[in-house]
Design brief:
52% helix; 17% strand; 467 residues; alpha+beta; 9 helices; 3 domains; single chain; Helix Hairpins
Length: 467
């Protein structure tokens, strides 16, 4: 835009350039890998070319040795005299390889009749016919031996192996050298291709960097390569989880402030009454109300903290196996005094061990909330029963009371936080069943609500699947 300073854009480009050449740059790493791979392939191709060329050179030179031997033997049959002859070694050779090719002609008795100037005096090969390899004076020779038709003369034509090795090496080098010049020229083209190929990463980086702090909406970038799509999906999943977490935190803060406002106002009111009361009975009654209010506020705070700790996206549930029956017995023992105070019969069916996998402490909180709710809503001299049963696929926990129950149309909403049924006069936070549902979800368990025995009261069933 007009008037904007180009400095931020220049700094951005300089930073990108610096990162591109930094030691941990993905671009440099890809460039090194590609150049190394190409160089390795060039070396492999050169080695294969050397091996194949050596084989072809061997075949060609062997054919030449055989052909030369037959030509020389035909000429020698009419020209060789009884004395030993040596073909003269000219100072001006037609080819540099001439000194590395030699021949010998011997008679049937093995006497040397004719040889080239570069040929050793000893027999080139012990084989009397065909191709063979010999080591003479520390040098390897390829030798072809052949007799004439009358079997009176034998010719051995030899060639140093170094000729073949040198020629095969020159062929391989002729293939390798062009690549040595091509690779430095190809490197910039590879760098440009890598730069263009990694450009979507820059788009993602710019999209994330330019976002406002409060913007946790998914990243939407079209025409993204398949290799980068999992990265964007992972970032979007993280953003979604963060948004869910922040929303829970905001909702928790708002709910806590709203729910704590009423008991704190009541505490203040009762404290003022106690402060102004002249009669001891009124002051005592007001202070008892303060203590009761503190207990309710404490219970509410504990429930809120428990609910916050049991976020299903971030809570970790153990996989240890524990006896559900023992957990129920422990909870009932803890709540026996509360049930006794309200003259409520508290019981549990006897049975064998019911093994469940998960977190025994969390399941204890679940059972405690169900039983405590049942005690709170059951009238005096009522009953609360806990039953544990088992079928082929699950272990069931049932908590049954003979209180007022919950109307069918309200059962779906009682798991919402702070929701309380219409006409409910019993004190409570409205978080008990929400906590129960959260713990059940963490254990992949199912919670169901139904009427109690004879259609009265409430029966809460929790189904723990067998692993």
């Amino acid at each position: 835009m007009p008037g904007e300073s180009p400095i931020p854009d220049l700094l951005k480009r300089a930073n990108a350039f610096h990162l591109s050449f930094s030691g941990n740059s993905l671009r440099r790493r890809l460039l090194r890998l590609l150049i190394s791979s190409i160089s390795f392939l060039v070396v492999v191709v050169s080695l294969l070319a050397y091996v194949n060329s050596h084989h072809e050179v061997d075949e060609l030179f062997d054919a030449q040795l055989a052909e030369s031997a037959r030509v020389l033997l035909d000429q020698a049959s009419t020209e060789v005299s009884g004395s030993t002859g040596v073909v003269s070694d000219s100072d001006h050779l037609a080819h540099e390889y001439e000194r590395k090719i030699a021949f010998q002609i011997r008679d049937r008795s093995g006497n040397l009749l004719l040889r080239s100037a570069t040929t050793p005096r000893r027999v080139l090969s012990e084989h009397s016919e065909g191709f063979s390899d010999s080591l003479i004076e520390g040098k390897r020779w390829r030798v072809f031996a052949h007799w004439n038709k009358a079997h009176t003369l034998q010719i051995q034509v030899g060639q140093l192996h170094e000729i073949r090795n040198e020629l095969a090496g020159r062929i391989a080098l002729s293939l390798l050298v062009p690549f040595l010049f091509v690779i430095p020229m190809v490197a910039p083209l590879i760098w440009i291709s890598i730069e263009r190929g990694l450009r979507p990463l820059d788009w993602v980086s710019d999209e994330v960097r330019m976002r406002a702090v409060e913007n946790l909406k998914p990243i939407v970038i079209t025409d993204v390569p398949d290799e980068i799509r999992p990265l964007i999906d992972s970032i979007n999943t993280l953003l979604s989880r963060l948004e869910y977490s922040f929303e829970n935190e905001r909702r928790f803060t708002a709910d806590a402030a709203h729910e704590l406002r009423t008991p704190l106002a009541a505490l203040k009111t009762q404290a003022q009454v106690a402060l102004r009361a002249n009669e001891q009975d009124k002051k005592r009654k007001a202070l008892e109300q303060v203590i009761s209010g503190v207990d309710r506020a404490t219970h509410l705070v504990q429930q809120l903290l428990t609910l916050a700790r049991l976020d299903p996206q971030f809570s970790q549930v153990g996989n240890a196996e524990f006896d559900l029956y023992q957990v129920v017995v422990r909870v009932l023992a803890d709540l026996a005094n509360e049930a006794l105070t309200r003259k409520i019969e508290l019981g549990c069916n006897e049975g064998e061990a019911a093994m469940v996998k998960g977190d025994a402490e969390m399941v204890g909180i679940l059972v405690s909330n169900l039983v405590r709710n049942a005690i709170r809503y059951t009238p005096e001299e009522g009953s609360v029963g806990v039953r544990i049963s088992e079928d082929e696929s699950a272990i069931w926990l049932h908590v049954v009371d003979n209180g007022p129950g919950i109307a069918p149309e309200e059962r779906a909403r009682v798991f919402e936080r702070f929701y309380r049924t219409l006409g409910n006069r019993v004190s409570g936070s409205g978080l008990g069943l929400s906590i129960v549902k959260r713990i059940a979800d963490l254990h992949h368990a199912e919670v169901s609500l139904d009427s109690g025995e004879d259609g009265k009261g409430l029966s809460v069933g929790v189904r723990f699947p067998k692993s």
